[in-house]
UniProtKB/TrEMBL annotation:
InterPro entries: Asp/Glu_race
Source organism of this protein record: Tetzosporium hominis
Transmembrane feature ranges: none
Protein name: Amino-acid racemase
GO MF annotation terms: racemase and epimerase activity, acting on amino acids and derivatives
Length: 82
């Protein structure tokens, strides 16, 4: 199975989740523009009255990722808001 890890730049760069996936026979999929979208999403979540904007950002990102991966791992507590 293919998995996408969503988190901050430092979480992704640490590769801790990706190493765990690989050790369990799963492939981690990453695209730079997904990371840019995640960064935007995290920043937007921290703004007041963010729900409408963040839901739209999340929906667009989710639709694209779901075409390339079977699993989405939320590796950032801020992303729990979406």
């Amino acid at each position: 199975k293919k998995a996408v890890v969503l988190g901050t730049d430092s979480t992704i760069q640490s590769a801790i989740y990706q190493k765990g996936l690989k050790a369990n026979g799963q492939e981690a999929v990453h695209k730079d523009h997904w990371q840019l979208a995640v960064n935007q999403l995290i920043a937007a979540i921290k703004q007041p009255n963010h729900m409408q904007h963040t839901q739209a950002l999340w929906q667009k990102l989710y639709e694209e990722i779901s075409q390339h991966a079977d699993i989405i791992i939320s590796a950032c507590t801020d992303l729990n808001a979406v």
